[in-house]
Amino acid sequence: MPICSCEETINEFETLTRDAGRVQQDTLKKILELNADAEYLNHFGLNGRTDVESYKACIPLCVHSDVEPYIQRIADGDTSPLLTGKPVTSLSLSSGTTHGKPKFLPFNDELLETTLQIFQTSYAFRNREYPIGKGKALQFIYGSKQVVTEGGILATTATTNLYRRPRYKEGMKDIQSQCCSPDEVVFGPDFHQSLYCHLLCGLIYSDEVHQVFSTFAHSLVHAFQTFEEVWKDLCADIRDGVLSDKVTVPSIREAVTKILKPNPELADSIQKKCMGLSNWYGVIPALWPNAKYVYGIMTGSMEPYLKKLRHYAGHLPLISADYGASEGWVGANINPTLPPEQVTYAVLPQTGYFEFIPLEKPKGEESENSASIHYIESDPVGLTEVKIGRIYEVVITTFGGLYRYRLGDIVKVAGFHNSTPELQFICRRSLVLSINIDKNTEKDLQLAVEEAGKLLEAEKLEIVDFTSYVEKSSDPGRYVIFWELSSDASEDVLRSCANCLDLAFVDAGYMGSRKIKTIGPLELRILKKGTFQEILDHFLSLGGAVSQFKTPRFVNPLNIKVLQILNRNTTKSYFSTAYGL
Description:
- The model is unreliable at 367-372 (pLDDT under 50).
- The strands form 4 sheets. Strands 9, 10, 11, 12, 13, 14, 15, 16 and 17 form a 9-stranded antiparallel β-sheet that branches.
- 39% of the residues lie in helices and 20% in strands.
- The protein starts with a helix and ends in a 6-residue tail after the last strand.
- It is built from 20 helices and 21 strands.
- The longest helix has 24 residues, at 217-240.
- The protein has 581 residues and is α+β, with helices and mostly antiparallel strands.
- The relative contact order is 0.11.
């Protein structure tokens, strides 16, 4: 994408967002014309109409379970127009790690095009602030296993559906995002070997790397934690020009061997730089001196990893990638200089039809720091009708066969760019921790862990990762929080942490229930080092992709395997005494 076409992309974006209301009507019309024969639309009596009023009057709001029977028929080989006019030939697996089982979603060429539009738009704005020339991207990306359904439909993760399409590769070349590693590494069957080779290829091309990327901040942190352990092996491979015996997959070995040549100077230089770092601070700019930024999804459940990622990135800016889900895209980051904690996403009005359910906090529950609310909903409003400062749940209609689909994401309208809103991602709507009248979301859990984590900072310790569980087998039920720590902490500090966590849940339902003992003392369980790696390995063994892995912040009781891993690796347990014994 030469500079001139970056300007073209920005001009086109400006034009479309100046009249976002009209573009939305046109986009809905286009979606409904393309899919006029879809059984789903006709089941509700839309009968070929394409105007907003008829659409909202006929088609109800839906969630995944409403469309699941149609998607199952597609998976079973039914080629009649069910959700889309054209037959669906690919399915995406969502990262459904909460219930431990993935969800199928339709994927088609139109979704590929909207992906490229989003990526090109955010690239154009990014390139204006941080111009990158011809070069490569150090990308920690991983294809996942592809499964063929009973009806012969290919199902894989949304990211893999993109990576394996030539059209996507061309589009990425245009925006200077060519991966350092050959395809065989991206699509390799063994994640650990792929990660090792991503690092190796990144070092081989270290002078050409202009950006460092992974889908999620978690994958970036994991990659550099691995680098700390394997850097000497990588140096040896580069020095001798021989790939480590650890890499055993023939396709990966062959592809990487082609680009690995003996280079003692580079090996010495890497070794010297690594030895000169203090606790790996700034390892990314030290080894990739031409990198302009670190890029990936850094909002929502990825926020807890930012501190560690900043440590590795040193002075380089962290830029949060665009806002979407396996279901479809919502917005592009057009303000790349904002830190991830403040990032907003501008909705591209031509990529889908968007509605927003206004959410009101009930009177008396307005405390700002709590996400744990049962909201009062009003009727959905259109893209241009949202109001600044208000919160909403996102509803999308896509080119991929989802109609008035509730994403389950809560967003806040931070402002407008021309007539399209800029959204701030707040949290997933689903409740995480609840025993009776208490209601706590992922955001509340994150805030509680951050609060208690401050007690560890004084001890120079950090939380590697965390999750939670509701223990209902005993009466009263209680919250159980699992922590993996960077090293051992004293008993006194961990007891204080348990109390701090218990007091940090400020939801009125929780505090009231704790006082009258209808919820028992919170339990903090400390895990062996490597427990979350074991959970990741389990997720991969089910056919998941590491690029989609999100540590489950709440473990569902049905997810027996993950609970077994957590319980087996628990080394110590501390009960809160914050509300008395």
